[in-house]
Amino acid sequence: MDPKALRFADTHEWAYAHGDVITVGISDYAVEELHEITYVDLPSVGDTAVQGDSFGEIESVKTVAEINAPCDGEIVEINEAVGDDPEILAADPFGDGWLVRIKTADIDQIDDLMSHDQYQQFIEQEEEESKDEDDQEEDEEGY
Amino acid sequence: MMCKRPQPTYCRLITDAALPPAANMARDEAILNQAAGAEVTLRFYRWRPWAFSIGYFQKYGDFERFERDGIPVVRRLSGGGAIYHADEIAYGLVAPYGAGPFGRRAGEVFERVHSSIAVGLGLLGVEACLSDGPSGASPLICFSRPQRYDVVVGERKILGSAQRRKGGFFLQHGSLPLSPNRFAPEALSLGELVDALPDDGRLVEVFAEAFEEAFGLRFERACLAAGEEAEAAKLAAGKYAAGTRWNRRR
Question: How many domains does chain A have?
Fold first, then answer.
């Protein structure tokens, strides 16, 4: 999947609309940030997804992070291979590492998400904020 | 150019009495669920009765036999391996990650928080450092071997932590054994390293001081807010109660 064709949430999930079915995954940035993913827990087919709410969890480095739904709808397919082998997610987050497909009744919700360019700016800003904090700590250590 | 540090607006230090497993996990979850703004909460507590907490992704079946023998088992929100909470002091830290003093990535948070705990141990005369051991999947019993960023004395683990992340905040659970733990004989305890074990009040004082110094915070002694107490009571009686679906899932 071409990342430039995807939409992104500020919680680092991506979404790709094909008709009213939205394929969802997490970004390469999120994968790098999580580092060494050990478990992925996905919902069941038929479960309800609510935009912004958690539909699954990922564990890495003794840390459990929630995966949030980019739109409302019904889970119509899950990528069981990722649940069985989380390395697939780490290796190809925009392709074989997709997580779920959601059939949505409100395709316009995808417009709420960021474009690829907007997402790149968003993560650069996040990195910058963290860097500012580190720089300031170094400055303060110098006093 | 100096940037303005986004300072946490309110930093609470909560010292709870020894509480049952369900109450401890419920209180930490309520604090995480209601965290807002740039608030930081550090809660110290003990467990009574002694109990196993198991990591979010662990299998209950691996611990069922302990529950049959009368040892309670509760599932944590956080990841990692199981801990037998006996004679120890435990902490739960809820704070924002990202543009704040704790860092963004989980490893950064573990490294920074554990470094401050190592400083606290230093104040007690214990020379501790962080493990450069492997990361990856946790062992069944958390204290059975050190993983990266765990606090160690020599090669032996003395403190480990695990996290849950939600809505821009992390909840980090950690435990410091005060005397040898029957289910983790490989680990060290504070009591084996000091001539006289400080009381809980002194331990809280030392570690809170180390946190304040490391992160530029000033704690205020506080209790849970009424809303947190109400949510915690509900979670303790429901989700985390003995034998619930939550505890026995997987």
Answer: 1
Residue B227 Cα to chain centre, angstroms: 22
Interface A–B counts its CB contacts (< 8 A) at: 91
CATH assignment at residue A79 = 2.40.50.100
Residue A127 lies in a domain: no
Contact between A67 and A57 (Cβ < 8 Å) = yes
CA distance A114 to chain B (A): 18
Question: How many domains is chain B built from?
Answer: 1
More confident residue, B7 or B120: B120
Q: Kindly report the nearest CA distance between residue B249 and chain A, in angstroms.
A: 12
pLDDT digits (tens, 9 = 90+) for A34-89: 878 999 999 999 999 999 999 999 999 899 999 999 999 999 999 999 999 999 99
CB of A139 within 8 Å of any CB in chain B?
A: yes
User: d(Cα A69, Cα A104) in Å, to the nearest integer?
Assistant: 11
Looking at CA atoms only, how far is residue B159 from chain A in angstroms? 14
Length of chain A: 143
Q: Which of B99, B136, B163 sits opposite A129 (nearest CB)?
A: B99
- Are B161 and B83 in contact by the 8 Å Cβ rule? The answer is no
> Using CA atoms, how far apart are residues A25 and A70, in angstroms rounded to an integer?
10
Specify if A38 maps to a domain. yes
State residue A135's pLDDT score: 62
State the SS3 of B71-135: CCEEECCCCCCEEEECCEEEEEEEEECCCCCCCCCHHHHHHHHHHHHHHHHHHCCCCCEECCCCC
Instruction: Report CA-CA distances (Å) from B111 to A136, B34, B57, B108, B171.
Output: 18, 25, 23, 5, 15
**Which residue out of B3, B11, B129, B142 is catalytically annotated?**
B142
Question: Can you give the residue range of the structural domain that contains B56?
Answer: 11-226
Q: Is residue B231 in a domain?
A: no
Length of chain B: 250
Cα separation, B66 vs B51, in Å, equals 9
What are the tokens at B172?
A: 């980090």
Q: Is the ipTM of this complex over 0.85?
A: yes
Active site residue B142: yes
